[in-house]
Amino acid sequence: MLGTLLGFITNDKPSAIFKISGLKAGEGGAHPFGVMASVSPSVAQVGVSVEALDQLAQQIPVSSAAVSTVDTFMQFTQKMLDSLYNFASSFALSQAQMTPNPTETFIPSSCILKWYENFQRRMAQNPNFWKS
């Protein structure tokens, strides 16, 4: 039975994420963020075919299959890190500007910057480190 070609991976392109739509309702795994009423589980059957590169070049993936590469994820992550750091920095006060407030917790911006740099380093080493 032939399926729908979503895309491919090769030695030159060793990784890709393919978005699929039109899934059938059925038994699905638990959602990583817990039970969500608006999300119904779905099932997809995925197959892998090993083809010669010249045959692969003749095949055309369906246009509705959106491919998201690790580079796109890395760009998103970088923008997210920048946004968090910029947002947190916008509340920065010098020690002279601080007034005692027992209901407020202050975090040194150096801690946020250290986390930011560590996260960037870990993403550069392994973009999927956060999955473990």
From TrEMBL:
Pfam families: Hikeshi-like_C, Hikeshi-like_N
GO molecular function: Hsp70 protein binding; nuclear import signal receptor activity
GO terms under cellular component: cytosol; nucleus
Location in or out of the cell: Cytoplasm; Cytoplasm, Cytosol; Nucleus
Keywords, ordered alphabetically: Cytoplasm, Nucleus, Protein transport, Transport
Main location per the UniProt record: cytoplasm
A Gene Ontology BP annotation from the UniProt entry: protein import into nucleus
Subunit comment: Forms an asymmetric homodimer; required for binding and nuclear import of HSP70 proteins. Interacts with ATP-bound HSP70 proteins.
Protein name according to UniProt: Protein Hikeshi
